[in-house]
Amino acid sequence: MLESLGSLVTESGFAQIITSPDGWKALVMIAISCVLLYLGIKKQYEPLLMVGIAVGCLLANVSVLGGFGNALYHQELWDEFLKEGGQHYHSYGYIMAHGGLIDILYIGVKAGIYPCLIFIGIGAMTDFGPLISNPKSLLLGAAAQFGVFFAFFGATLLGFNGNEAASIGIIGGADGPTAILTTTKLAPHLLGPIAVAAYSYMALIPMIQPPLMRALTTEKERSVKMEQLREVSKTEKILFPIVVTIFIVLLLPSTAPLIGCLMFGNLLKETGVTERLSDVAQNALMNIVTLFLGISVGATMVGSNFLNLQTIYIVVLGLIAFSFSTVGGLLVGKLMYKLSGGKINPLIGSAGVSAVPMAARVSQREGQKANPSNFLLMHAMGPNVAGVIGSAIAAGFLMSMFH
Amino acid sequence: MTETASIAVKGEMLDVGTALLDGGLGYLVVFIGLILLMCVVIVVGKIMVSKSAAKKTAAAPAAAAPAPAAPAAPAKKAALAPGSAGEVKIYDTDPRDAAMIIDIVADKLQKPLNELRFVSIKEVK
Predict the structure, then answer these.
(1) Which burial class, exposed, middle or buried, applies to A125 when counting CB atoms under 10 A from its CB (0-12, 13-18, 19+)?
(2) Where are the domains of chain B?
(3) Engineered SS bond to A102: which of A116, A299, A393, B34, CB 3.0-4.6 Å?
(4) Do residue B33 and residue A252 have CB atoms under 8 angstroms apart?
(5) Nearest CA in chain A to B42
(6) Is residue B112 very low, low, confident or very high in pLDDT (cuts 50, 70, 90)?
(7) Residue A181 reports pLDDT greater than 90
(8) How far is CA A329 from CA A133, A300, B74, in A?
(9) Tens digits of per-residue pLDDT, B29-43?
């Protein structure tokens, strides 16, 4: 009886915190997951994903203290899975046979399924009308990828290898699923910190962008009222996803998973004959995949992998990537303002970072502060959705270079 | 970078020159890709606009055929506003009152105006 009680005590997670060499790390991660929960619930920073990530992190670190057999997520299994030349290298069967709930859910991340399914949902929710009516927006979407390559360069200077630097740089695309897919393919061991940095900064866009917008533009530029966009026909909206898929995927085949799924979702929305599928993609599918993605990405934040100098570098480089993406968009916006004779408001340039529709809302708000009768939202939606395509191309380029 | 746990870290270290070149090339590829896409979208847009303009011109003579007598229908109309679903026929109603009615209906239904179509407004006597 006493023996049973004794083993119950020594096997408990509380005892493991003290006795296990990694116990203190798990404790720190539990505290971090509570902070993430606070940010998601109280501050509403991307709550749909942040809460899932926080709970995933919490479950992985709490359950691992209870011993290998009880864990929901087994870092050891995934280390074996990634060990080149090992017995279980890339063996999903091994994971299925020995894994816990989150290990099995994580297969969807590892195989690159969840980001693509999320892109179908995003496509089904996106109206490309503002981009079709003002195709020059695509230039701003391209310009706002500056941070991706700037952070990539910065990461190599800090000693990260090519694959890691590419995964860190893509945080500047301000597109969570793209960042997750790229990291899964190039540097899976960095998935936890990169996903958290990407989603945290996306949530912080209303704080990161306005100071840069005000610093780089004049009051006169910010108060420019733009002409109304032309009406886009239904046929154009149906043709757009088909044309983009054919053109971009032929140009850069590695973009096929992201661009293909994004445009498939959009086609479901625009055809008008697949309303049920569009509805599923926008709601049920998106919600289910968000749930699985959040919890399984969060579970990768195991203390032994997360608590190191790399994570701090990634957090700093992520902020640099976001800021320089905003700067790139604003500078090309200013150039377009000059070339158009003052007809284009440069504030729409900062919306070129994907983060739909948050970045466009920030442009609208800053424009309205300068001129209360200014309505930039629809004009900013063009660069905003162009940014989604731009970041997918940037990711495609990096994957083709380093995978 | 220091390796954590026993995870295999793939990828080569890049020297500064290569990293700069890769970064610059990547940014250029994104620009070229989106500039080419812009050209394609502009061409498709121009074809679609010219097609719809041709359709409108073809439909104009048909529209000039005898129309049902409409007492106070507006004489000659200007180009439709973007997003418009057509024109509203107003019978025995002041245009200002009609505009107010449209606004009230949209407000009551909690629907944006571009999702509603008003065919005619007639004063009930």
Answers:
(1) middle
(2) 14-60, 89-122
(3) A299
(4) yes
(5) A135
(6) confident
(7) yes
(8) 19, 33, 46
(9) 999 999 999 999 999
